[in-house]
Amino acid sequence: MMRQRPLTLVQDDLVDYEKAMERMAALVEERQDDARPDTLWLLSHPPVFTVGKRTLETHLPDPSAGIPVVPTGRGGQLTYHGPGQLVGYLIVKLRDGEGVVDYIREVELRLVEALGTLGVPAERRDTPPGSELLTGVWTRDTGRKIVSIGMRSSRSVTSHGFALNVDGDLTPWDLAVPCGMPDVEMTSIARELGRASMEETRRVVAEAFEAS
Predict the structure, then answer these.
(1) Are strands 85-91 and 69-71 parallel, antiparallel or unpaired?
(2) CA-CA 20 to 30 A from 179: which of 98, 135, 162, 171?
(3) Of the candidates 35, 36, 40, which has an alpha carbon nearest to the alpha carbon of residue 106?
(4) What are the b/e assignments for 4-23, b being 16+ CB within 10 Å?
């Protein structure tokens, strides 16, 4: 059973990615200085590909796609953000002895719980021995990836977070190699269930993270 970790909830609709990064950096600095509590910021972005430092050039989209590609300081590789996707940035002070990978595992489990509540059986996946960290959440019945996760920590405070596909256009995922996984198939709540509600998803995810 996960330990309690209540978060302060901040919500926005569509926020430009680079403007969101500026605000997130300010939130992280405030948390490092104990000037604010642990925070979950829920929002969405206009269409953008973001790439971690380990992203291979061959995994990038063709520039003719017309979707901006923005480098980012988080862990992980390439991901796509767009309308209809719920992004959650987690500005959380890690506990003594806790590393960012430990917290990522907690994030996965909380999202598995939220998706189950929404009617999508889901699971996190163990990383095979000798392999790179496998992060995210997959649907249990179809084996498709529904949540991407990329995080980092600085001075024991996490930043970045997760992207849960709710009811947005999935075709941009086909323009690049998501998460460094050429064979992965991305999905959304709407694709799995034939319906989805962003409002309900926000509520259920906030509850799963004890955020209010």
Answers:
(1) unpaired
(2) 98
(3) 40
(4) eeebebbeeeebebeebbee
- The domain that holds 145 is classified in CATH as 3.30.930.10
Q: 25: number of CA atoms within 13 Å, CB side? A: 9
For residue 25, is it within any domain?
yes
Query: CA–CA separation, 161 vs 169, rounded Å?
Result: 21
Widest Cα–Cα separation across the chain? 47
Q: pLDDT tens across 75-89, in order?
A: 778 999 999 999 999
Quote the domain boundaries for residue 58.
8-208
Q: Is 74 annotated as a binding residue?
A: yes
Query: What is the spatial distance between Cα 7 and Cα 9, in angstroms, rounded to a whole number?
Result: 6
136 marked as binding residue: no
Q: What residues act catalytically?
A: 179
